[in-house]
Amino acid sequence: METEVLMQARGVRKEFKATGKIVHAVSGVDMDIYKGETLALVGESGCGKSTLGKLLLRLIPATAGSIVFDGEDITKMNKNQLRQARQKMQLIFQDPYASLDPRMNVGEIISEPLRAYKIYRSEKELEQRVRELMDKVGIRPEFYHRYPHQFSGGQRQRVGIARALALNPKLIVCDEPVSALDVSIQAQILNLLHDLQQELGLTYLFISHDLSVVRYISNRVCVMFLGKVCEIRDTDSLYANPCHPYTKFLLDSTPQPDPNRRKEDRALLTGEIPSPINPPSGCRFHPRCPFAQEICKTQEPELKPCIGGMCACHFPLNQ
User: Fold this and answer.
1) In what order do the strands lie in the sheet containing 203-207?
2) What is the pLDDT of residues 179-229, one digit of tens each?
3) Which segments of the chain are extended strands (E)?
4) Are 53 and 41 a contacting pair, CB within 8 Å?
5) Distance of alpha carbon 315 from the chain centroid
6) What distance in Å separates the CA atoms of residue 176 and residue 99, rounded to the nearest whole number?
7) Taking the mean position of all CA atoms in its chain, how far away is CA 21?
8) Helices 123-136/153-165 angle, 10° precision
9) What pLDDT is recorded for position 269?
10) For the chain, how big is the Rg over CA atoms in Å?
11) Residue 192 DSSP SS3
12) Please, what's the largest Cα pairwise distance for the chain?
């Protein structure tokens, strides 16, 4: 993994208006994504991780902040500039059943981005490229004319991956790409993503709520809670010694096949997640944190260096 930054986000915010109120979906996120790495983005449902993924691709506009991709600030690009930049950024969707047009066959689905950018000299060249992509992701090229309903969930996700690869992107945002699949199929898709990364030098932002999947595929992990980053650290350090109390609770709530792991050894969260319409002052986790002190209620913690990365906590567990 290189240490050259491919994408840099600074102060990224996203606010939505809902029934006259403001939803603070993403609140001032700072993040670097390095070339060739898999950075996992994790947190409970509603923490803002999928919204952040869409912001980084500028599928939705940011309320504030800058996003520099491959040396250019995409938040300042016009439509033509953004169209060109999007060739280098692609998305793999969560649901392989909903993300493929049932009226199009596999050849048409995979060739769609190539046609949109006119990256072919002839129909024969286009078809050859599509068949190469099908072979690369483990779909038999003779299935070129088949439709999505003729494939299993895992095969459909392979088609989605082939479509994402068509324009030779540098960054792929994987938004819960295996959560809709059976466990045995999940492993196959994860291995495929890993092999493609090694072969093509891809960079992944891997959005997931499944911490066992994240541990398997990621180099670094970014933990989010209520629109804020709690910690960003290399995977081994984070799983061995979480710095932020919220990360520890997430790990403790993950089922593990360990007969020696007693229930009383695990710390489980209590209480409801605060509303993003009216987030708590100070540290947003403090209403649920057993280690919170007075400063946590009034002063928002900054991301500071810790072992293996950065943590935003006044009283980190691992100092």
Assistant:
1) 89-92, 171-175, 203-207, 38-42, 220-225, 228-234, 309-311, 304-306
2) 888 888 999 999 999 999 999 999 999 999 899 999 999 999 999 999 999
3) 5-18, 21-34, 38-42, 64-69, 72-73, 89-92, 171-175, 203-207, 220-225, 228-234, 304-306, 309-311
4) yes
5) 27
6) 13
7) 27
8) 130
9) 64
10) 21
11) helix
12) 68
Helix (H) / strand (E) containing 40: strand 38-42
Closest CA to 249 of 299, 317, 306: 317
pLDDT at 263 over 80: no
**Which tokens hold the place of 288?**
């649920």
- Give pLDDT, residue 266: 55
The tokens of 114 are what?
């190539």
Calpha distance 17→34 (Å, rounded): 33
Average pLDDT over residues 223-240: 95
Q: How far apart are CA 73 and CA 50, in angstroms?
A: 20
pLDDT at position 271: 63
195 half-sphere exposure, CB direction, 13 A CA radius = 10
Q: 110 exposed, middle or buried (CB, 10 Å; 0-12, 13-18, 19+)?
A: buried
Please state the rounded mean pLDDT for residues 122-151.
94
What is the number of helices (H) and of strands (E) in the chain? 10, 12
Task: In whole angstroms, give the CA distance from residue 206 to residue 39.
Answer: 6
Q: What angle do CA 87, 91, 95 make, to 5 degrees?
A: 150
**What residue type is assigned to position 27 of the chain?**
S
Give the pLDDT band of residue 267 (cuts 50, 70, 90): low
Instruction: Quick: pLDDT tens for 22-37.
Output: 999 999 999 999 999 9
The span from the first CA to the last CA of the chain, in angstroms, equals 26
Look at phi and psi of residue 136 and say left if phi exceeds 0, alpha if psi is from -120 to 50, else beta. Answer: alpha
